Amino acid sequence: MATPLSDPSLSPLAVVAVVGLGTMGTGITEVLAKAGREVVGIDISEAAAAQAVAALESSTARAVARGRLTEEERAGLLARVRTSTDLSAAADADLVIEVAPESYEIKQEIFRALDGIVRPETILATGTNALSVTRLAAESARPERVLGLHFFNPAPAMKLVEVVSSVLTAPQAVARVTDLAIELGKEPVAVGDRPGFVADGLLFGYLNQAAAMYEARYASREDIDAAMRLGCGLPMGPLALLDLIGVDTARTVLEAMYAESRDRLHAPAPILKQLSEAGLTGRKAGRGFYSYAAPGSATVVPDALTPAADGGAAAGREVRSVGVAGSGTMASGIAEVFAKAGYAVVLAARSEEKAEAAKARIGKSLARSVDRGRLTAEAAAATLDRITAAGSYDAFADVDLAVEAVAEDLEVKQQLFATLDKVCKPGAVLATTTSSLPVVACARATSRPQDVIGMHFFNPAPAMKLVEVVRTVLTAEDVHATVREVCARIKKHAVDCGDRAGFIVNALLFPYLNNAIKMVQDHYASLDDIDAAMRLGGGYPMGPFELLDVVGLDVSLAIEKVLHREFRDPGLAPAPLLEHLVAAGCLGRKTGRGFREYARR
Question: Where is each 3-hydroxyacyl-CoA dehydrogenase NAD binding domain found (predicted)?
């Protein structure tokens, strides 16, 4: 039997009502009117309606000043918008978008009222990012016309729109709204109904873990945020982003997610409740994880938790020469970094041939920098001259700092540290670049655990600015100070963290990647839609599946296993799909196939 939604003569959603004229509702109104739609903005508050009109006038005036709109276009846009405080103003709408507060009671009351106002073929969309679309639809007189339409803030700028279907939603309704999103210049992704959908579902779990990491005093707020910006290329650190979103909003979203999933990773960190109940909800309150110049200000001001400029650190040891152990990409990259900074470098491997090959790789890297104008030929030659290739670790006898970058295997690293203990002079600092193994286990392989520390560089080492400095319970203060001073000299940003699996970056990054895999495994959304959602909605430089294929699925699985083993959280168990792909030899770009297929070189 035909339904009103299946009528091919229906209008292309020419008249749209927006219910709720806060920041999001006003932004959606602007987007719709700019695309030629007649928009009815509805809010129970006359003041909110007037403020929305004023905001539209202001934002469109700025657009004219910047040459993005003409005065004629602006006048037409504003003429297409009218406001009301009465829901009956939606009677002629082809589509109603509800962006009222995140409350089932409020939203259900709106939907029940709309059932008696709008035409049978009118589509009803909720802008919720945390509540169940299915639950809202089930209580509607026509559940087949109810769906989710989740815009991102600020709506005029953000390209992503999540189109959320429940099991009750008619495909025709989804198709019509998807077409509208494309006409609005947005990139719609189709998702099923679960708390947080795709973007927020992945984002808020990550934010929650960052809050818990800070609450546990594992790392400072500044170091957590810097690690994720510099280590992952994110536009904002997680704690600064929580302040921007609103700590109370994040807590609400996480509570809804946890109620549905019962995944401990979604259980709101207690600090979110404490800050919310204290009124410290982030930028809007002038204080959250950080303190701000005024409520609503983006300017961070120093407070009692701001680190001192000098850090109060002990004096470090003198470092003039550096030994780098290994012959792979990471070892050669680290050697290049130290040599560029003026250090005498000994690059040692298990054979002279391997060491010379690693030095040759550095020569090629320096030549590329010369070709790109980043380095003079003279500076490149001087850098390469500072590197001595050696086929034995005996060459480390006089180095002040030894950095190992060998295979990520604890037994291999322990054997190497036992060798360094015998070879290196007293007082030399011994550092491991491990990304997942316990630093203290390397330290215990020596007779001088106080001299051992973690220096986790990121690949490619010459380009990536971050170094995670990992102290064990045995690391001496002057060893920590030495490494901090060395990081400054090689122009790297050092962040401090304790000796536990994943340190900062991997401990926050890989559960997020694992959750993305689970979404695909559960047929919740496609690879392409998830990648698009995180690039467009979260500001990530790469979607999770692009990143997994670059990192390598075998490497990712190994890190997931380490995290699961250390924290014993069921939510951290590697997704079976990841294990299956690794078992099949689909390891990502390096094998030509991972989550996607790649052209063979």
Answer: 16-193, 322-499
Picking from 373, 353, 223, 350, the residue whose alpha carbon sits closest to that of residue 289 is 223
Element (H, E) at 187: strand 187-192
CATH code at 215?
Answer: 1.10.1040.10
Which of 499, 534, 549 is the C-terminal boundary of a domain? 499
pLDDT tens readout for residues 345-371: 999 999 999 999 999 999 999 999 999
User: Contact at 8 Å (CB) between 72 and 85?
Assistant: no
What is the mean pLDDT of the segment spanning 90-98? 97
d(CA 506, CA 501): 8
Same domain flag for 264 and 181: no
Asked whether residue 450 is assigned to any structural domain, the reply reads yes
Range of the domain at 517: 505-591
If asked whether residues 30 and 66 sit together in one domain, one would say yes
- Per DSSP, 396 falls in state G
Same-domain check for residues 533 and 492? no
Phi, psi of 400 (to 5 degrees): -90, -25
Has residue 600 been placed in a domain?
Answer: no
Q: How many folded domains does the chain comprise?
A: 4
Find the angle CA(83)-CA(89)-CA(93) to the nearest 5 degrees. 100
Residue 97 pLDDT more than 80? yes
Residue 440 has pLDDT above 90, yes or no: yes
pTM metric for this prediction: 0.89
Strand partners, 346: 323, 388
Segment 235-243 mean pLDDT: 96
pLDDT at residue 3, rounded to an integer: 57
Q: Which pLDDT score is estimated for 5?
A: 58
Residue 188's domain is classified under what CATH number? 3.40.50.720
Q: In a 3-state reduction of DSSP, which class is residue 160?
A: strand
User: Do 541 and 487 belong together in one domain?
Assistant: no
Confidence bin at 9 (pLDDT 50/70/90): very low
226 near 495, Cβ under 8 Å?
yes
DSSP 282: B
Tens-digit pLDDT profile for residues 280-315: 999 999 999 999 999 999 999 999 999 887 655 689
SS (H, E, C) 436-475: CCCHHHHHCCCCCHHHEEEEEECCCCCCCCEEEEEECCCC
441 shares a domain with 333: yes
**Cα–Cα dist 345/352, whole Å:** 15
Domain end among 463, 482, 499: 499
Asked whether the beta carbons of 109 and 100 are under 8 A apart, the reply is no
Same structural domain, 187 and 252 = no
Let me know whether 228 and 359 are in one domain.
no
Residue carrying structure tokens 């029940």: 112
Q: Is residue 6 part of a domain?
A: no
Q: Residue 123 class from Cβ within 10 Å (0-12 exposed, 13-18 middle, 19+ buried)?
A: buried
Q: What percent of the chain has pLDDT over 70?
A: 97
Residues 358 and 224 in one domain: no
Binning the chain into helix, strand and coil, the percentages to the nearest 5 are: 50, 15, 35
For residue 269, is it within any domain?
yes
Round the average pLDDT of the chain to a whole number and report it.
Answer: 94
Q: What is the pLDDT of residue 10?
A: 53
